[in-house]
């Protein structure tokens, strides 16, 4: 089949990835799809998808979730999209492209967006069974299938994709190794200090990292399958599978075959208009292009800019691509990593301002010029300020550099917000959108929400790292214009969570429906509410239950329908549909008899057991109908619910303290037990974690908890607002040298003030940084009683303590409550057939079905073409 040159000029796009899709959008924006025939030859069996988020397949995302192709857009613009049909030859003299299917298309303009291919080091046995690359959806499917018969996996490459691949292997249940030839992880993005912080954090997650060594050979067994790797330092690493993620190379073979000029190290040579230097009718964009500045850009933002430049040039508009910002913000294995500007300080006479906290996994470096200009920086562990700092790059920030890296509570003033940025500051580098353009979308185009501003400016529609700053700018501009910003909890309530708390307490409302009907938005009254407000209100009612006369049992009556999935069955739902069981072990202290009970239960029910970071024993793999049977035995042995499923107190860790340790100065175990038994079951906006250390050596890690206690020779020091999770934060010292009674009284006040004023799903760390006045304000309220509410806060806590009831003890003694614990309501004796397990390391693990990612239905995927 041949498509000939005719009256309608033809644009052929070879490749339909993220950059190719952006090129099509740029053509449409300039009206070229109305005046040109546009043909797309796509090699993969599906239209463009978000390759940046590829790893999210392993966390449940579907191809539809990541698709970047609106098929309505393809049809409306008459674009002929051929999936699974790549270009095979280009005849430049005849201006003709031939596809694998035999389709021949004559072109007026040819645009190559063929991307890149993964580099596999030329080592022996690199193609053996068990060797994979990490690039496409099909690669992930193959890795997932092979991992079912593997226990150990190794990733060659410690860059962005390498770390994501290692995280994927770990998520598949494999012991994971990372082998990186450079002396540190992510050598392009971070320096030695940042690499060290990243290394510590990743190793704490259970991954093994080998830096400064290369792969010499893939070792195979008699069956030809991978059994290990020989490394350049002479060691051998045992592994069942190898994933190569050692970088990419420009995919330029098609260009080479048709005689286009390519760079010495690859890449199709183009000028500043992204037109190939060999042929004015051919353009190259994205990772296959060697830009005019001599670089191949592997990030999506420069690729988008090249796509827009090529489209503008085809439309006879003036445009040039002269280089791009290589700033990046990533979340790797849950760790924030960002670099911007001259991150490695290559400018002459530049200076570094560094903040490093190895215990919290934080590393922040700013590169400053002699005149105070911010040149660049690196952020590891906390990239909250990335958007603002990146926008300040090239200018002198309005505050001292050290104020930009110090965390709250460590001498830093209030963080600079985006309102301090000049109008020409670039907020979205993917689409080159300035702060002024965003403000204009609000003031000139009457945009009032982030989605509206996204549609108007395209800001936030690329990598997404600017969305938070975008939201702050939109709200600031609306408020500056006298427009009230809706800060309501959700579409059902115009009040904030704090305001709803006050309403529930003052009016003693103990029903969600009553609250919605009396105080919800007019259009929401009489309705069913939403998934945002129902669990939030349920938490408020549970927190205040004794004070407002509500039932303290979260599954009573209406409360049951409001709960999250975990609370609904008083257990944590796992990825295969089974549940985990976590009995409370106050302070981590447990008698041998109780250890034996846990072991017997785990053995009898075939449960996987693991020691948790909170000094408890977690039992995984219980079916929903087994939960009451398991808990009946636990309660009979003296255990109670550990509330691992709820937004409530989890654990109070402890070291052994002065009873056993020769360094201990106080009885930390006794204090931890007392605190855990006092605050058990306390429902709050988010989970609460605590710890008590018996001396300044801090073995219980109290300064990484929501409230932590450290013993001194004179009493106890109380720290608040710590977090050791995805965004680590050191706790702040609230008060020191407290007696037992003073300590408990301050914790009572602190927790109830937090529950009263925090937003939904807001940890104490972010709450403390958000509220006006921060730590000083909290100290004024809970220590000095500046608001005169401490008596009320103490009474609320006393009511909680006095009315505490163990949820599982109540459940197993009530047949009506037990009736909910079935997989199928209409077949209560039938277990869920999907929940299955396979053996691993003398225990068992979930037998997960292979993630099925096939083609969309033919009528929904445009397998042929959409004719105009």
Describe the structure.
It is an enzyme of class 1 (oxidoreductase). There is one protein chain. By secondary structure, the protein is an alpha/beta fold. It is built from 30 helices and 39 strands. Helix 1 (18-29) runs parallel beside helix 9 (300-314) and helix 12 (435-443) packs across helix 14 (467-480). The chain starts with a strand and ends in a 7-residue tail after the last helix. The model is unreliable at 1-5, 409-414 and 850-868 (pLDDT under 50).
Largest sheet: 5 strands, parallel
Termini separation comes to 18 Å
Shape label: globular
Helix content: 25-40%
Alpha-carbon Rg, integer: 30 Å
Please tell me the overall pLDDT: 88
- What is the number of beta strands? 39
In the CATH hierarchy, the architecture of one domain is 2-Layer Sandwich
CATH topology of one domain: Sulfite Reductase Hemoprotein, domain 1
Task: Note the beta-strand portion.
Answer: 15-25%
- By DSSP (H or I, 4+ residues per run), the number of helices equals 30
CATH homologous superfamily classification of one domain: Sulfite Reductase Hemoprotein, domain 1
Runs in which pLDDT lies below 50 for 5 or more consecutive residues are: 1-5, 409-414, 850-868
Strand order in space, largest sheet: 4-3-2-8-20
At the first level of CATH, what is the class of one domain? Alpha Beta
Structural class: alpha/beta
């Amino acid at each position: 089949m041949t498509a000939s040159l005719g009256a309608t000029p033809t644009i052929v796009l070879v490749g339909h990835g993220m950059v190719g899709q952006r090129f099509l959008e740029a053509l449409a924006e300039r009206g070229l799809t109305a005046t040109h025939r546009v043909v797309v030859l796509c090699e993969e069996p599906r239209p463009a998808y978000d390759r940046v988020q590829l790893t999210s397949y392993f966390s449940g995302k579907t191809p539809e979730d990541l698709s970047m192709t609106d098929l309505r857009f393809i049809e409306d613009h008459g674009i002929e999209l051929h999936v699974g049909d790549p270009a095979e030859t280009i005849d430049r003299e005849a201006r003709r492209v031939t596809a694998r299917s035999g389709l021949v298309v004559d072109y007026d303009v040819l645009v190559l967006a063929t991307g890149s291919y993964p580099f596999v080091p030329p080592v022996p046995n690199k193609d053996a069974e068990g060797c994979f690359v990490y690039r496409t959806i099909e690669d992930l499917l193959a890795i997932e299938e092979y991992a079912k018969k593997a226990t150990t996996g190794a990733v060659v490459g410690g860059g962005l994709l390498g770390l994501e691949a290692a995280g994927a292997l770990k998520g598949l249940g494999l012991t994971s190794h990372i082998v990186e030839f450079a002396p540190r992880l992510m050598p392009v993005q971070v320096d030695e200090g940042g690499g060290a912080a990243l290394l510590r954090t990743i190793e704490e997650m259970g991954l093994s990292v080998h830096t400064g060594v290369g792969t010499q050979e893939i070792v195979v067994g008699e069956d030809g399958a991978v059994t290990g790797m020989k490394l350049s330092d002479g060691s051998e690493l045992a592994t069942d599978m190898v994933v190569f993620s050692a970088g990419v190379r420009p995919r330029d073979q098609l260009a080479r075959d048709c005689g286009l000029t390519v760079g010495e190290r690859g890449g199709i040579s183009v000028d500043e208009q992204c037109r190939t230097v060999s042929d004015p009718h051919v353009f190259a964009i994205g990772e296959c292009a060697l830009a005019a500045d001599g670089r191949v850009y592997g990030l999506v933002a420069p690729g988008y800019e090249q796509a827009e430049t090529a489209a503008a040039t085809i439309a006879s508009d003036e445009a040039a691509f002269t280089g791009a910002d290589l700033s990046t913000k990533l979340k790797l294995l849950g760790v924030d990593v960002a670099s911007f500007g001259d991150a490695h300080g290559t400018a002459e006479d530049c200076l570094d301002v560094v903040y490093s906290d190895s215990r919290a996994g934080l590393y922040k470096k700013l590169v400053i010029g002699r005149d105070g200009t911010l040149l660049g920086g690196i952020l590891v562990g906390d990239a909250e300020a990335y958007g603002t700092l990146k926008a300040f790059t090239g200018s002198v920030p309005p505050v001292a550099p050290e104020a930009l890296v110090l965390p709250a509570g460590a001498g830093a003033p209030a963080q600079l917000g985006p309102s301090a940025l000049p109008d020409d500051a670039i907020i979205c580098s993917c689409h080159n959108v300035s702060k002024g353009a965003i403000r204009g979308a609000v003031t000139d185009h009457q945009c009032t929400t982030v989605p509206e501003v996204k549609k108007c400016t395209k800001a936030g529609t690329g990598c997404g790292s600017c969305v938070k700053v975008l939201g702050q700018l939109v709200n600031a501009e609306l408020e500056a214009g006298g427009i009230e910003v809706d800060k309501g909890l959700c579409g059902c309530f115009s009040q904030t969570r704090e305001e709803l708390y006050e309403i529930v307490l003052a009016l003693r409302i103990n029903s969600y429906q009553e609250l919605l009907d009396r105080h919800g938005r007019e259009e929401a009254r009489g309705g069913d509410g939403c998934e945002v407000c129902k669990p939030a209100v349920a938490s408020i009612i549970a927190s205040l239950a004794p004070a407002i006369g509500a039932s303290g049992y979260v599954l009573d009556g209406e409360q049951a329908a409001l709960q999250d999935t975990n609370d609904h069955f008083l257990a944590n739902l796992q990825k295969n549909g089974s549940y985990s069981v976590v009995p409370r072990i106050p302070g981590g202290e447990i008698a041998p008899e109780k250890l034996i009970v846990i072991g017997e239960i785990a053995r009898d029910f075939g449960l996987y057991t693991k020691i948790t970071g909170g000094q408890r024993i977690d039992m995984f793999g219980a079916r929903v109908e087994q939960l009451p049977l398991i808990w009946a035995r636990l309660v009979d042995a003296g255990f109670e619910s550990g509330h691992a499923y709820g937004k409530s107190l989890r654990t109070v860790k402890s070291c052994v303290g002065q009873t056993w340790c020769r360094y201990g100065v106080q009885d930390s175990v006794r204090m931890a037990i007392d605190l855990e038994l006092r605050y058990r079951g306390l429902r709050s906006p988010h989970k609460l974690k605590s710890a008590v250390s018996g001396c300044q050596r801090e073995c219980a890690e109290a300064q990484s908890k929501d409230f932590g206690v450290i013993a001194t020779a004179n009493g106890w020091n109380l720290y608040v607002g710590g977090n050791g999770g995805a965004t680590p934060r050191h706790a702040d010292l609230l008060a020191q040298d407290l007696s037992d009674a003073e300590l408990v009284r301050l914790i009572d006040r602190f927790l109830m003030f937090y529950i009263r004023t925090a937003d939904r799903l807001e940890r104490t760390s972010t709450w403390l940084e958000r509220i006006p006045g921060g730590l000083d304000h909290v100290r004024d309220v809970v220590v000095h009683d500046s608001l005169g509410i401490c008596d009320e806060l103490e009474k609320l806590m006393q009511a909680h303590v006095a009315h505490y009831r163990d949820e599982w003890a109540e459940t197993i003694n009530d047949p009506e409550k037990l009736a909910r614990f079935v997989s199928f309501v209409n077949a209560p004796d039938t277990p869920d057939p999907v929940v299955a397990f396979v053996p691993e390391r003398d225990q068992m693990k979930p037998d997960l079905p292979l993630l099925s990612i096939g083609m969309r239905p033919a009528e929904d995927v445009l397998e042929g073409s959409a004719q105009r």
